Amino acid sequence: MNIYLVRHGETDNNYNKTYYGSLDCELNDKGKAQSLKVKEKLQNINFQKVFSSNMKRAKETAQIILGENHCEIIEEKRISEMNMGIFEGKGHEELKEKYSKEWEMWCNNWKDYKIPEGESYIEFYNRVKEFFLELLNGEEDNILIITHGGVIKSICSYILGENLDIFWKIASRNGDITLIKYEYENLYLDSIVPVEI
Questions:
Q1: Model-level pTM?
Q2: DSSP 8-state symbol, 19
Q3: Which long-range contacts (CB under 8 A, 24 or more apart) does 108-115 make?
Q4: Alpha helices in 7-148 (DSSP H)
């Protein structure tokens, strides 16, 4: 089984380097161009299943990648980005100034601290893991998943020994294609292909 994880194309929030998980924004022009590049790279692969986060930026990326291909896109809430609660739409400096106490608590215990009006990383990780493990019960040769950086990094953290501390040591840029292989009951990270614009 080949599982292709694609991070959605760039949005203005990515460009402005703000935290946003549940903010439902669209791709910018660069994000659309990145999605077209991903389409080129994946055009010769026959996907038996395609999943997308239910967020606009992921769904738009999926629609561009598939183009005229009428493969059904299955929307899946469990692979939406982490809900950042009161941190949504804000950058580092603004968070330090407006929510200094909450920011410090999150920095000191980023895995377990539940951001007000949002979720903890552990809650987020567990819902992503639940979805991913369900995939492994299928018999598809090729699966495409269009999702978010945090989701992809969480899946990689699971594959590399459920070591959540490596989450911050994994890169997942807009448009990157991460290939996970599942063979003989063994999961491994095969490659990460960047999309350059």
A1: 0.94
A2: B
A3: 111/164, 115/83, 115/84, 115/85, 115/86, 115/87
A4: 12-16, 29-42, 56-66, 92-98, 100-108, 121-135
Task: Give residue-wise pLDDT tens across range 15-26.
Answer: 888 878 888 889
92 is catalytic: no
The residue from 10, 81, 119, 148 that is catalytic is 81
Residue 2 clears pLDDT 70, i.e. is over it: yes
81 is catalytic: yes
- Position 6 confidence tier, pLDDT thresholds 50, 70, 90: very high
CATH of domain 2-82+119-193: 3.40.50.1240
Identify the three-state secondary structure at position 2: strand
